[in-house]
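Email to the structure team, subject: Peptide/nickel transport system substrate-binding protein model.

Hi all, the expression group asked for a predicted structure before they design truncation constructs. Nothing fancy, just the tokens so they can compare against earlier work. One-line instruction: predict Peptide/nickel transport system substrate-binding protein, return tokens.
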Amino acid sequence: MTRSTARRALAGVATFTLGSVLLAGCAGGFDAPTGSGETARTSLTAALPTDPSSMDPIRSGALVVLSVFFHTHDQLVKIAADGTLEPKLATDWKANDDLTQWEFTLTPDVTASNGEAIDADDVVFTYETILSDPSGENYAYLSSLDSVEAVDATTVRFTLKQPFSAFPRNTSLISIVPADTYQDMGADAYAREPIGSGPYVFDSITTGVSYDLKRNDDYWGPAPAIEEISLQPVSSTESRANGVLSGSLDVAQIGPTQVASVQAAPSAQTFSAASNGVVFLGVNSTAGPLQDVRVREAVAKAIDTRAIVDSLLSGLAEPAKAMIAPAVEGFSDSVQPVGYDPDGARALLAEAGYDGTPIPFDYATDGRIPLSSEVAQSIQGYLQDVGVAVDMRGADQQSHTLKVRGREMQGVYLNTWAPSTLDGDLPLTDFYETAGNNNYAQDPATAAWAAEQRGVEGDARQEVFAKLLDYSNTQGYFVPLYVPFNNFAAVSGLRWTPRADGLYDFTGTSFE
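Reply from the structure team: attached below.
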């Protein structure tokens, strides 16, 4: 098997120009070959942002682990880099008239890497096992599912509790296990030595260090060009950038502040593309001055999102029109943004009789939103410029998240939402339905539209999304700020298309 002449294990990495941060020493990855030559590279090392909690697809639903499972296991469908749905284990799928039943036709003659056949019974076992544990990480993706059955060896029927047009997208996150093998081994043993039917198999697992994969030569589908993949947890964005620049990593997600330095290096390249998330201001429309829609509209008009993107974020984002990003199903170009209008904001505040009462502004000082403190301070400046006083309340990410989940905000707050299914149903549930963490308005109209979109498809569904998102903008229930970019550093010569959700899929990747 040909390996890269440039491969180096992380254990011997020195610091590089982005700072005095050492990559953690580790023993993962593949050995460099002996000899020389100009053959195309076939080994790749990529950084994971965190360490996966488990290699058991039944029990682990964290997004980071999907970057592993997309290579080692099959899912019924696949979300492509551009957000569209593609066949994977399933060749096609269709629903009944009221969208309460979905049938998936499976590829025949698929086997796991140990030779066990993968058919409808294995799909049923996987889904039923997840459904049997409501506390499991994957259960939320299947909360609409009532039952699943094997119609025949290559047909699976899902019966839902209510209509759900986006159900196929949820199946893209569920990895199918070989039922007999899983039961014979038991969950714990399977997590130590997972066996799937994907294009790669596990070569070794060293928790916290590396997850090393080799190409599955018996894979039922097209063979990927990359023969070996080492996925290695590296938590620091600076360390990940250093790793690419020093050659110990081939690709890694980095923060916006690292992009310019990587671009300046002759041995590296960057990939930056709009993500599936929206950074926004949540609004407690039932508290203080924000009870007046004119004050809420003024807050939205006061903020120059284009300036924040161009200056503070160095252009590595795009202003958001609505609470769903363009890469997400349900986004509509017809939605009208509020727009930057400081004079209009001042007029609305005067009309509303706003008396300068400070509005609490909660934000996380670290964590999920890069440069969150700087973004919050910029917004504070814009609000003060039109006469809105704010009480800044910075907190660590964990404390901030707990307040969001407890619906404890008293004014406006900085937050972000990126649906793992790349479908608008998930954020709509949280923003506009009764139990949503971010739903302070409790408006029956938004709840009705959020439910309505599940029972329709195509243009009819798009119309519901557009109506709801426009209404949300005019009511000032949220202030969409910007769609951040996913930024990656990579070695020169890597041919790769990043996904909007920031996860890895190297099945179509190669080196020049």
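The two ends are 18 Å apart (CA to CA). Residues 1-27, 32-37 have pLDDT under 50 and may be disordered. Ping us if the truncation boundaries need rechecking.
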